[in-house]
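Teaching note: in complex prediction, the entire set of molecules is handled at once rather than each chain in isolation. The prompt given to students was simply: 'Predict the structure of this complex.' The entities are:
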Amino acid sequence: MVQSSILGFPRMGVNRDLKKATEAYWAGKISQADLLAEAKRLRLEHWNIQKKAGVDVIPSNDFALYDQVLHQIQDFGAAPPKYTSHGLNPVDEYFAMGRGHQKNGIDVPSLEMVKWFDSNYHYVKPTLQDNQEFKLTANPKAVSDFEEAKAAGIITRPVLIGPVSFLHLGKADRDQTVQPIDLLEKLIPVYVELLTKLKAAGAETVQIDEPTLVYDLPAKTKAAFKPAYEKFAALGDKIPKIVFATYFGDIVHNIEVLPKDVYAVHVDLVRNPEQLDTVISALGSKTVLSAGVVDGRNIWKTNLKRAIETVETAIQNLGKDRVIVATSSSLLHTPHTLASEKKLDPEIADWFSFACEKAVEVSVIAKAVTEGPASVREQLEANAKSIQSRATSKRTNDPAVKTRQSKITPDMYNRRSEFPTRIAEQQRTLGLPLFPTTTIGSFPQTKEIRIQRNKFTKGEITAGEYEKFIEKEIQDVVKIQEELDLDVYVHGEPERNDMVQYFGERLDGYAFTTHAWVQSYGSRCVRPPIVVGDISRPAPMTVKESKYAVSISKKPMKGMLTGPITCLRWSFPRDDVHQSVQAEQLALALRDEVVDLEAAGVYVIQVDEPALREGLPLRAGKEREAYLKWAVESFRLSVSGVKDSTQIHSHFCYSEFQDFFHAIAALDADVLSIENSKSDAKLLKVFVDEVYPRHIGPGVYDIHSPRVPSEQEIKDRIDEMLVYLKPEQLWINPDCGLKTRQWAETKAALINMVNAAKFYRQKYASTK
Ligand SMILES: CN1c2c(nc(N)[nH]c2=O)NC[C@@H]1CNc1ccc(C(=O)N[C@@H](CCC(=O)N[C@@H](CCC(=O)N[C@@H](CCC(=O)O)C(=O)O)C(=O)O)C(=O)O)cc1
Ligand SMILES: N[C@@H](CCS)C(=O)O
Ligand SMILES: [Zn+2]
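The expected output is the structure of the full assembly:
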């Protein structure tokens, strides 16, 4: 019998129940016991959904209160000392690492949080010490979750991040020099102990995720797989059978380190179906293949016929007993259920499949290959109809968009003059001081803003009333920025539910949902709009609000847009048209918006591209260069329609741009703001080495945490930056937008930031 399996299930719940519970706990509105009870209810509900869908192998320990890597950090005794010395209870210590803690005399910032591979999910980075020791906690979550499911009558497959990936995805703490992979020998005993405990609890199999195998790995990391997995193999049946799981790419380039002695190997056959043959021939003689044929990263209905063909190929090579049907990755990256979408056009809804529906898909595929297609004829026929409907629908194709794309000329990618001419012109018209201060666009999205928007969406208030409300919000943030004495204002983005969804809702070619939430980090979720057809802009999207903001501001007002790559990456993209085509369509739509903003008197325009980095193919090489070429071109196409005097900003919430700095430079943005507060300022050296002449605002404080940075801390950051950047290049801004923050902490942090900027402005006054 061919089994069906899922690598991980979304944990938020059908109505973002986990988000609501954690935020209520943080706000002191519910007790810790209430929070843990809600988490338990959700786990049970999700296991039962999968069981009901007919999934044979159901995961456990895929659930997390904030992040799954963070649970492992804590359970392995790898919480950095600054979190463990305050006597916080384990749950609060866990949240302190995730989001910082500033209460009752304790003041610790959060650990660094970064993108999980090329997804829009963020994990907490293991942050390790030179004298790091690991010690398994008395009651590891992997074991208690397994036992919880078992008590409910479900024998699950616990999920762990593998030792090599855990270390490779980690880093040395500030001022520490340890190379995480060198800690492998110390870490393995903790895995051995945990695996032994899982076996004792009754776990027959365990899923050990080693997704780093899809990367180009340093020799030392590559070499680490062998000793680790040999050690596990030597334990025989003292530990559960291991499913060695990789996803988000192919493993062909690392195939020689694939362990032979594991029970099963999982590969992503949605992203890289072509790796099937190589992987099959590299498997140990008894190893099972877990074939990831149902997409864990997108919402399109699986083409069941095609998936069955792939699984059949594997069966022909390995036999039915050595193949498992699986999702390509965890379903964490997909929304909970399509059943919640009451407003979607039925024609379009028929093309989608969310987590609950994907659970049914894996089980149908497994049944089809076990018992024959006749056993699931009805499902296969309905599926073929949906696939055909999408392939032939008129809604996917807009000839006017294609015509416009065919008329793009080379000059449309270039600003009129080079940067020195432009900046001189901009300095003349904008008149900004040294160390200009600004923010990244959004100000706190208060409960009141969300309530009013919700009322407007439900028709409980009129468009006029909502517009008045938004204008009042803009007035308030302009006034606050005046009081703070910032230099370049923003309108605060109060009208935006999200920086991508907002644009998706205003563009033709997109569908959007009411409940399709996906976890982004911690309790934060996004509702990615879905690209269903050719994209165009039927009307201006942001001009009204920006124009109003300009009209009430005494200082330059930045217009805020989300760039083409970010719109694309944080949407669910089409899988029937190359992403470069979709990005170009978005770029043309945004180009019109940029030109319209300038015509409306907005002379500083920021086009955010935080997702440019995550779109980078995971391995270096030709594919990466090709991506960067079309990504950079899309950005340039979107911003190059303006005069020299209009200042183009771009923003990136990551600092790891060393490996593609040439692309960042090629964007030719006049000012870049980048996340930097939690990274080593040494990373800025690349700007010196590459003789980068344009302006840069490396973030001076972290916005993911409610913690208020002191003026001195900010000055220290600026000092570090000035080692690498010239004073006349440097802008002073936070790491990213402030939408997730409360007003009190926002004002307090910005007061400190502006004071720090003024200090340096005075210090360097004579050099201007
Ligand atoms: C910058 N980031 C973003 C990423 N991806 C995006 N698509 N957008 C981003 O901004 N990726 C990288 C980072 C990740 N960071 C974040 C930061 C913040 C959030 C976030 O705040 N998410 C919100 C949801 C935002 C939203 O869509 N809000 C809507 C709906 C609000 C809502 O819940 N309404 C209630 C009713 C009102 C009420 O009673 O409160 C409801 O519908 O039930 C809106 O504002 O209208 C979050 O809360 O998680 C995400 C990623
Ligand atoms: N302008 C956006 C950028 C987030 S990456 C904001 O400020 O929220
Ligand atoms: Zn950002």
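Point out the following to students. The first strand starts at residue 3 and ends at 5. The chain has 27 helices and 24 strands.
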